Amino acid sequence: MLKVLIVDDEPWVLEGLRTMIDWEKFGYEVCGEAQNGTDAMRLIQENKPELVLTDINMPVINGLELITKLNEVMEKPPKFVILSGYDDFKYARTALRQRVNEYLLKPIDDEEIEALLSRITPIIQNEIASNEEFDKKQFFIVNNIINRLIQGEYNENLELLTRNTLKLQADAELMCILIEPSSSMNPFQPQISDYFSEEHFCFFQDGSGRAGIILQSASIGNESLETIVNQMHSDLTEQSQELVFLALSSRMVGVSSIREIYRQALEVWKRKTHQQKRGVFYYSELRSLKKEEPHEDHFRQLLHKVQTNDSEQIQPCVKEAFTAFVENLLTLEVVKAKVAHLELTICRIIAQMNGDPDKIMTKLQQEYGNLGELSDYFILSRYVQNLCERAAVYLSELEQQNEQNTIYKVIQYVDREFRNKLKLQDLAQQFHINSTYLGQLFRKQTGQGFSEYLNAKRIEEAKSLLKRTQLKISDIAVQVGFSNTDYFIDKFKLLVGVVPSVYKNENKNQQL
């Protein structure tokens, strides 16, 4: 059944519209009534009706203001029909230019409204069918990408595809949530949007049919997350009339972390379902209760040896790790997945230190071939040993270069602290360098003056917040480091070409 909501400040009009129309005949149920715009705003956002009939003249918020506000805040606003007296007819005509679909003049004739429903209902049904078809296609695309990542596939092209499809920033903070039983979630009509805004999550099913969510979690604090998932657990349990289980990973950064956060959520799922427990469980709690697996500990130690260039201890550490793999009966494919994660971590560290991962990876693959082609434990252990030894030497060289390159440290500091109050003179004093010379080095290294670079960094962060939050523009200005909102707006328009409010609305329209 489609849902219709009626808004009018006259109780007799509400009563008449509810009773004079055979709503069920046209496939509708009345999901709510409101006598003012404020109540209507709340009820429409809660019930998400497909159709709203609203009077123009109402207290607090009139009909046109209500429609305008809902079009701004709702991803998929309903169809609107304006109820207008003859004296307000000119307003009804204005309303037709504000995404209002039809209007009815009072007093309302039952034949007229039935004729209107005959016209507008097929339009609504066709749009719903079209949206459902689009959602199905989108689900299959996203599901395929997520499953490729959680199965261990990763390369630059796949990362770019993932970021574009899921609308992720390079440094997006991510979490994975697994839901059991999966029957409690419909992949084509996910209830997740009741708890998280649509641009902050994607729904998937793994190879075993488990339902999962990849969540952009940066804007959600731990307390808020706990409240949301507890409510989600309660609602799903009530709806499905089954005991529901939610397994949550830790928070990690970037597309390359998707496999790991899925693995964490899966580990929680395996341990808790084996114990026949239901509820909400976190990987962080699991880690505090369990003893780390020996091979996990060895790989952490191995990464530490690489970062400290402890070359003498790399070989023994690799040997201990692979001995632990054998003792724990891990398959070669599982081990290769762990090695791939170690390899990606080392490459990310090299890149963060302004190095080129291909400098060691190209030679390594020329000698051993691709990681996926390695066919036994011994060759794989030699691969890991050579990877770590070469990475240790290269990272040591990069560290020495970076220590000699003060401007690199300054840029890193600005990239990290741009939200705070920064001045070139203060940085020069902090890094023990003449401020004029520092300004020259900064322009030579980045192609921009210090202030230009800092403002560009802040504006990029502001663009991200405008896309993914409902914060006020003044609050965003403060969060990214501008103490003066007008100055922020001027700089934003200079760099982006439009003011922040226009940029925010353009991105909203693109998502509809």
Automatic annotation (TrEMBL):
The modification 4-aspartylphosphate is found at D55. Gene3D superfamilies: 3.40.50.2300, Homeodomain-like. InterPro entries: CheY-like_superfamily, Homeodomain-like_sf, HptR, HTH_AraC, Sig_transdc_resp-reg_receiver, Tscrpt_reg_AraC-type_HTH. Residues 3-121 form the Response regulatory domain. It is found in: Cytoplasm. Its main location: cytoplasm. It comes from the Bacteria. It comes from Paenibacillus odorifer. This is DNA-binding response regulator. The lineage of its organism: Bacteria, Bacillati, Bacillota, Bacilli, Bacillales. Keywords: Cytoplasm, DNA-binding, Phosphoprotein, Transcription, Transcription regulation, Two-component regulatory system. The keyword Iron-sulfur does not apply. Residues 408-506 form the HTH araC/xylS-type domain.
